[in-house]
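Dear U.,

Please find below the material for section 3 of the report. The protein was modelled together with calcium ion; I have listed the sequence and SMILES used, followed by the predicted complex structure.
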Amino acid sequence: MRLQRWNLAWALLGSLTACDPAVVDHSPTSNLLDAETASLEAGVGHWTAWYGTKISRAPGAARQGEASLRIELTEPYGWGVALDNYPGFPATPGAHRATFWARAVRGSSLRVEMRVSWRDARGEELQAHRLAGPVLGADWANARLEMVAPANAERVSVDLTGSEGDPGDALEVDGISIHSQPDR
Ligand SMILES: [Ca+2]
C-alpha cells in the first residue's frame, strides 16, 4: 500500500510542469494550492490585496521559476494579502507541511507571517496555524512548519501579513505550498 502511494505521488509530480524535479526540496506530493497561486509564473493566481498593500506579479524576480509575488506597502501600520477563493482549496485531515520563500526588496525589519486556515465543508474555520518567517534581507529565506489538519478539514486557505514597514517598502514571496505528508 505504501509503495502504491509513493508511485502515485511520483506520477503526480511528473505531471506538474511548474514543479521542476531538479529544484524540488519538498515531499513528492501535490501542492494543495493551485499552480499560479503557488508559483506566480503566469499571474497572481488567487492572491488579492487585503489591506495596506498593492500586489503584482514580479517577472524576472523569483526563487523558483521566472516570477514571484511582489508586495508593496502603502500604509505604515501593517499589511495583509489574502486569497479570493473563499472557502479555499480542497483539503483533507492529517499531517501537512507549509512553506514559503520571501525576501526584502526595499525596507528593513520586514517579516511575513503566513496563516493557514483549515475549514469544514461549510467554510467554518476549525483551526489555524501561524508560520512566522525570519526578518527578511536581500537573499531569499525559507519558512516552513509541520502541522496536522484537524478532523473534518475539507478546505484550506492562507493569508500573508506583516506588522513592520513603511509606505514604499516592498518584499517578494515565491514557492508557497501546503503539502500533505505521506504516512510514515
Ligand atoms: Ca515562481
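For the text of the report, you could mention the following: The chain has one domain: 31-180.

Regards,
Y.
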